[in-house]
Amino acid sequence: MKILIIGTGYVGTATALALAHMGWNVTGLDKEDRIITLLNSGHLPFFEPDMEEFLQKQLGKGNLRFTTKAEEAIQNQEVIFICVGTPAKEDGSADLSYVKMAAETVARYMRNYTLIVNKSTSPIGTQEKIVRWIRDAQPKKGAVPFDVVSNPEFLREGSALRDVLQPDRIVIGSDSHRATAMLRHLYQSMKCPMLVTTPRTAEMIKYAANSFLAVKISFINELARLCDKVEVDVKDVASGIGLDPRVGGSFLQAGIGYGGSCFPKDVEALLHTARSYHGQLSILERAAAVNRQQQVYALKQLKKIIGSFQGKTVAVFGISFKPGTDDLRESPSLHLIRRLLQKGASVAVHDPVARLPQELGDEGVKQYETPERAAEGADAIMINTDWPDYRRIDWKKIGEVMREPVLFDGRNMLDKGLIIEAGFQYRGIGR
Ligand code: UGA
After folding, report:
1. Which mutation among 83, 156, 387 tests ligand 1's pocket best, with the greatest number of atoms within 8 A of CB?
2. What is the pLDDT of residues 277-314, one digit of tens each?
3. Most buried of 39, 87, 178, 232 (most Cβ within 10 A)?
4. Are 242 and 183 in contact (CB under 8 A)?
């Protein structure tokens, strides 16, 4: 099958690689020259474990290429995936302008029947909109038949390759037998359940999945605050309830709150959808509020040990929104750094992969190459991203170079006993 992927961000690139790996003939299309040049030379425009080697391997097989030339890329494709961004608008709703642009470009250049697959996270009703946009933009003479289906993506940053090669499930929202049969054929080598449903349902599943996980995180984060009061370790509580398969142990790690390019945006978008239908998702509303408060709570906990932030130096370990990525979008760590600066603290940071944004550098924040250097002379360390590297630190040694050996474990990732043994005052979330 000849397949085109429009948009070569995380989802587009990972999808292109998975489909090329399955043996299909894949082209990736993007507007940005820089990205296409990088990809064609076997390099990724972002950090993602193991993906660069995999890209080089697929390029070597000869059935994968990347281009900026829309007309040439679109004509004579059998399947076209739309994998463009759907950023949040001011009111929380998803901005579909890139999806619309992609649909109109496809309409202009497709020559034969084409199956258009929307993988961009987009609100309920988007598949119908794409059909309309394509119809309206097709040339009057020579309009060709097409189908549009919704096929949401569930990959996570940091494990994107594994997630696309071995997905938990494939969801197809289709109202055309022909389209469904084509996608079944396309994904024939995948060994996971396939759910075929209506386009609207598929679109809802994507938002419901992210929202449910966000609720799970906020549930454990709020419970962690109570655990602090009643002197109970939330980690043990999470293990104890997670062993029940009806609850499940994942996404029960209390910390400084969820971030990234998906959860915050998708939760707001679903809330916006509910409001626009005069409905309410009160549990999800609370989950979003708990997530916002979680950072305030984290700083309050640290303040209990160090008193005021004024004139203090805080070493922040980890700036990406989660480990395994250099993505800083909606990173709780960056939000916390800004709050620390507002409260008069100086901030030194370390991150094994992510680079500090210029704007924070201009405000005096410095990034160091090792955790030890970042901690020199600090009044406290805050672990904001649970990079496994931080488990291997010699905490006794690091404590000796600090002004005060205080550690706030914002991801509950360390063995509390060992840290106290190394001479630290330790605080986590709900421990
Ligand atoms: C999320 C979903 O997990 C994917 O299934 C989905 O495809 C993706 O969004 C998307 O819509 O594109 P991602 O944002 O890459 O993936 O990262 P997650 O692993 O879900 O983590 C999100 C945030 O929650 C991170 O800030 C993480 O630190 C936080 N988190 C996660 C917790 O605070 N506690 C947990 O127990 C788990």
Report:
1. 156
2. 999 999 999 999 999 999 999 999 999 999 999 999 99
3. 39
4. no
CA of 212 to the centre of ligand 1 (A): 11
Asked whether 86 and 99 are in contact (CB, 8 A), the reply is yes
Buried b (16+ CB within 10 A) or exposed e, 127-156: bebbbebbeeebeeeeeeebbbbbbbbbbe
| Structural domain spans, the chain | 2-196, 212-428
Domain spanning 212-428, CATH class: alpha beta
Fold of 2-196: Rossmann fold (3.40.50)
| pLDDT score of 276 | 95
Question: Residue 412: CB within 6 Å of ligand 1?
Answer: no
Catalytic, 227? Answer: no
CA–CA distance, 365 with 356 (Å, rounded to integer): 8
Which residue(s) pair with 427 in the sheet? 408
Cβ 167 vs Cβ 193: under 8 Å: no
Fold equal for 2-196 and 212-428: yes
Q: How far is the CA of 357 from the centre of ligand 1 (A)?
A: 22
Is the Cβ atom of 207 under 6 angstroms away from ligand 1?
A: no
